[in-house]
What does this fold into?
Amino acid sequence: MLLFLIRRLLLAIPALLGLMVLTFVLVRVVPADPATTLAGETATPQQVQEIRRKYGFDRPLYEQFAIYVGQVASGDLGNSVFSNRPVMDDVRRTLPATLELIVVSLLLAALIGIPLGTLSAVHHNGLLDHVVRVVTVGGLAVASFWFAIMLQLLFSMELEWLPLRGRIGVNIGAPPSVTGFFLVDSLLAGHWDQFVSSLRHIALPAITLAVPALATIARFARVGVLDTMQRDFVQYETAVGYPRHRIVWIYVLRNSVIAAVTQIGLLFGALVSSAVAVEAIFDWPGLGSYAVQAILSSDYKAVLAVTLVVGVIYAVINILVDLVHGLLDPRVAEQL
Amino acid sequence: MRLIALKFLRDVPAVMGLVIVLFGLFVAVFATELAPHPEAAFQSNLLARFKPPSAEFWFGTDNLGRDIFSRVVLGTRSAFVIALTVVGSAMLIGVPLGLFAGYLGGWRSELIMRVTDVVLAVPQLILALALAQLMKPGLSTAMLALALTYWPFFTRTVYAETRRLRTSLFVEALQGVGASTARIVFLHILPNAASPIIVRATIGMGFTILTAAVLGFLGVGATPPDPDWGLAIAESRKFLPETWWFATFPGLAILIAVLGFNLLGDGLRDLVDPRLRRSR
Amino acid sequence: MSDALLKVSNLAVSIRGDEGTARILDRVDLEIPRGRIVGVVGESGCGKSTLIKAILGVLPTRARIDAGDIVFEGRDLAKLPPDVLAREVRGAAIGFIPQDPFLALNPVFRVGTQMLETMRWHAPPQWKGRHRERLVELLRAVQVPDPERALERYPHEFSGGQRQRLLIAAALSCQPRLLIADEPTTALDVTTQQQVLMLLRNLVAEFDLSMLFVTHDFGVVAQLCDEVSVIYAGQTVEAAPTRRLIDEAAHPYARLLLACHPDRATDLGGIPGSVPSPFAPPQGCRFHPRCPIAVADCAIARPIIEQTSERHDVACPRYRLPLPQGVTP
It folds into this structure.
């Protein structure tokens, strides 16, 4: 297992390096001259030159890149053009919120999606199967940001069951930070009111994000189960008297879930994308909101930093997924 | 050929997808004729602001008194043009790259595939946002960003197909008679790889409409007064919940359009190779 | 023979497909007396697997039992509801040894887990709490090395022959009265094949079982089975004690089949013609198009079963006729 981890990490490095080249290139090769952008529209040529010198824009490109890599490696992602504070601080502050949202969404999607897909496969071509298929295709066609607004319309504005925005009630306050996940931290601190408030606030955003993930997971679970049911060992297990429900929910499921699990890596990427708009809509103080803010204020350093961070997280998630894959399927583990 | 068409026609959801796409195409082409109030694209009518759906304004009016139904219809044209341009450009970049990477092998292939990996290392939207905000904001920037981030999907697909075909007998035969690389790749391998490309392109259309809508929503894509669906939803937010129709209908349009392409894409994929079900 | 453990009478099974309805089994009769090994021989496609599935009640959804009964220990399995079959028959009363040891076991679960699953639901109550012990004993009996640790391994860690032994142990694990083996040696090499056959014969004797052994190989039948039944295209054509069939086969198909066996054939030919498609089977006796002694009547009605001597049945009225010279390859 350890060998595998090392190998996977080594494989990820070129991609990340390439990503850094990409983000670096985006800053330089793109038409806008960063010095002029930084200086603003009313700057004099001297001021622009001053900035150019100060930020090192006048040094040769490869030297600038080397400096850049060094900075990134030590966690310095530059200072926000907007606030002039280190971007890394902003990222550190907002990342846990986004991660919590994505984790909850994925859990929701998996807990509903896998049984749904399995049931759909077991009742192949029945009414449930057709309904599930329509719903899953629809789920992938829904614009997350629009769906978020619709949910807000119904549950926050019309019915007033759930809060409109934010991560926790303003008058309740955040729990003492241990993991950065409000749901976990509030339980750890024993503050029930904080937990309930967090739960109520995360509900709508999580449901919104979960919709496309649920659709994908259900589809893969369905296909996985359908394929697995054709395999010989299912015939055998039936013939030697395993009860049907155990065949489907234990022996078939583990085989078919493998395909769904490996999709989680891709799903994560899709969720991060959706999170950008969804966080903006629910005022969820996460990386997505931060990115939107950065875009609106043309804070290019922040946007590129977010891109890099997301790339790194994506790579980490993919490694984790491979690990889990190895755990679930012993044959894969042997190959590593 | 007829067999394939018949098999496709038996797949109800796929046919539904085809119908929706063709309908959308029809609306896109004849948008200005079909919209009951075509001036809604650019003219405001402040006397008719915020009217709920009625016989005169089927989807109601927006904050500037424009007929939402007309704007949705006109937005169809915009959505299709964007999607076609982006997917077409992505194909023009990605397909040849995939062909050469798959056929040539060696360091050139490695290089191309590494670049593909890098671009795919970040979710498309994020990368498109990063690109878009570094250039002048606007629709063409958004489209460029989308195209530049979607081509790897074509490259990957074509690469796999080309590698598979590279070792087949007919390619060896062609090499034997001295056909040039370009000839083999474009005239012989490409037609065989056409089916997965078409599937990927169809799904890409739906995906692009969705992503372009998000960009429009975030203000990085279409700009007012374009009748862009995403933009309309963004504009509507300030006026909720009273003017629910303002946000609802453009979103439904997105849903139906993307649904159509997804259903069609799925149906085509089942035709091409049922085993391909697993990919995105 | 009213004391038979299993008696299949007049079984007909059809499957609905896209191209129409296939009558896979048309008239199958089979009797398995207590304590005997009965072989069922036939070419690929003759319906042997369908017969097994019908007995166990695991026919695919589009298949149906059209006629006949399957009487096991006094109960007609064809009429029992699926949940009763799953609870009381499969695993508990009838053990099953599958054809392909490479595909039968679930690859992501340990073999012990899988084998214990059957025992959990079907093992006799007196063994409650001692399933694992019992399983280890069985693995020893089938000669699987290091049984304790074997249970913790995954299927891919075993060779084909070892996996087949595991499957045999699994089949025996709940003390069934009848073992059904679906060509269990087909996927194995010849040496391993011999070992497994010997093992089976010993186990049947030791545990006082009856066995239904399906195969396409007469050689195996000769070694292992007490009685044998020959099937062609879903119809039982002959049934007799093994020695009697091999020495005095009556039905033209059986005679030809025996003559073709590598041990006896003088050249490489087979039986001319090919097995008919179950979607368009010949009328009457399904063998008549390829039969060297067929007459017009053979195409009209199914032949009546005649008894040549005690316990020897033939589905052919013309069985006494010799086969023409030069027809036998």
In short: The two ends of chain C are 37 Å apart (CA to CA). The longest helix of chain C spans residues 190-207. Chain C has a mean pLDDT of 86.
